[in-house]
Structures are given as C-alpha cells and as structure tokens.
Design brief:
alpha+beta, Aminopeptidase, six-stranded mixed β-sheet, two-stranded antiparallel sheet, about 25% helix
C-alpha cells in the first residue's frame, strides 16, 4: 500500500454488527443509474453479503479513514469452481464484486488498494484467476482494472432488460417462451454450454437454489403445433 494512502486508510474485513448500516448507506450513494435510466444497483434486502453469502469461500473488505473511522469504500470477493477446456477439470475462479468508493473520496487510490487487498485474499484462499465485470462505459473502472491492475478483456457481455409490468412488444407469434423445470435447465446447461471455455461445475446447485427465479427459453414453434 502506498505511503500516502496507507497513512490515511485502513483496509479491514467487514464487521456485520458495526458496519451493516454504514455499508448500506454507502451502496446507495454509489448507485449507478437515475430515474430516467436502468439502474444496475443490486437490492441487498438489508444484507450487504447477499451476493456472496452462499459461496463457501467469500469475504467483504472495507476501507476506513484512520483520522475519524469513516467508512469510505467496500469490495466483495468469492471463489467459484469453474470447469474449463484447458486441461484441468476445473479452476478456482476468484470473483471481485461490488467495488464502491464514496464519491467524496474517489481518485485517492482507495479503489486500487481495495482491489489489491481482495486479490491477495482470493489468491491466499486458492484462487487460480481473479475476474470481474464492469460497464463498458465506466471509464474510471475500466482504467483502474486494465491500466493499474493489469486485467485483460476476457469476453463481451450484453445485458438486456424488459420491465416485467409491461407486455413483450413485437414478439412474433412463431416464437414461444417457456419456463423450464430445474432438472430441464440443468440438462440444457450440461448439454449446450459445458463445451464453453469456462463452465460452473456446481451449475446443478445454482439452478436448484431456492433464491433462483428460474430459467426461461425461447424457440420457434411450428404453426398449428405447441
């Protein structure tokens, strides 16, 4: 940790008893999006660990000002076992999620120190790689991870959203959308996606998790037939 930042900030593990309300407030301050845009803020339902709690190996780190104990940053990490086509049966993939720095304390190196700290924790717990996802137009985040932390672009992901309260517009009558049972979804993933470079070895547990909303497929149906 650089001397200038080290003298100002302490990176430590999240303490649920003392930090839960402060972390929730910080997350809301850093919410991405406005009332006129789609927001990718994750509703934590009062639990800052909600995105990682069900992974056996997980951590949340916070950045705290030495001067007054103010909590000014947070990052989450967890480890997933992911199947690959690269020889080994699986790799332990360290996932970095939810990096947040208080708007008043950005461009001070706090985000960088949080990332390096969570990387050290993930590698120390057996991660073979570390990865994360960020918005393409998030210049500050992209620069941090590619220029300062030496991450490389692995894949491009496009996320589409449709308000659930509105009907799907412009959908052809030849297209059918159907929800799968958990066993059907597991069969689909194992037979269609297992050949990809990386594939979660615990996909059956993921799809059977009670918090999972479900899996839907869309396909063309022949006219006059279901």
């Amino acid at each position: 940790m650089s001397d200038s930042v080290e003298n100002k900030v302490v990176i430590r593990e999240y303490n649920e008893d003392r930090d839960i309300k402060v972390v929730g407030k910080l997350e809301r301050k850093c919410e991405i999006g406005t009332n006129k845009e789609v927001s990718i803020f994750t509703n934590m339902i009062g639990d800052p660990l909600s995105r990682i709690r069900f992974y056996p190996v997980h951590v949340m780190l916070v950045a705290e000002l030495r001067a007054n104990g103010e909590l000014v940053g947070v990052v989450k990490g967890c480890i997933k076992c992911v199947g690959t086509r690269f020889g080994a049966s699986y790799v332990r993939l360290g996932c970095i999620l939810g990096l947040r720095v208080s708007p008043r304390h950005r461009r001070m190196g706090i985000g960088f120190e949080l990332v390096k700290s969570v990387e050290e924790w993930l590698i120390g717990n057996g991660a073979h790689y570390t990865f994360l996802a960020t918005e393409k137009n998030n210049v500050a985040s992209t620069n941090l991870f590619t220029s300062k932390c030496n991450y490389m672009n692995f894949t491009s992901l496009v996320i589409f959203v449709q308000p659930a309260s509105l009907p799907v517009r412009g959908l052809s009558q030849d297209i059918k959308i159907e929800k799968l049972q958990a066993d059907q979804a597991i069969y689909l993933y194992n037979n269609k996606f297992r050949s990809k470079d990386m594939f979660p070895t615990d996909v059956d547990a993921i799809l059977k998790e009670k918090l999972s909303i479900g899996t839907w497929v869309s396909y063309f149906q022949r006219r006059g037939m279901d």
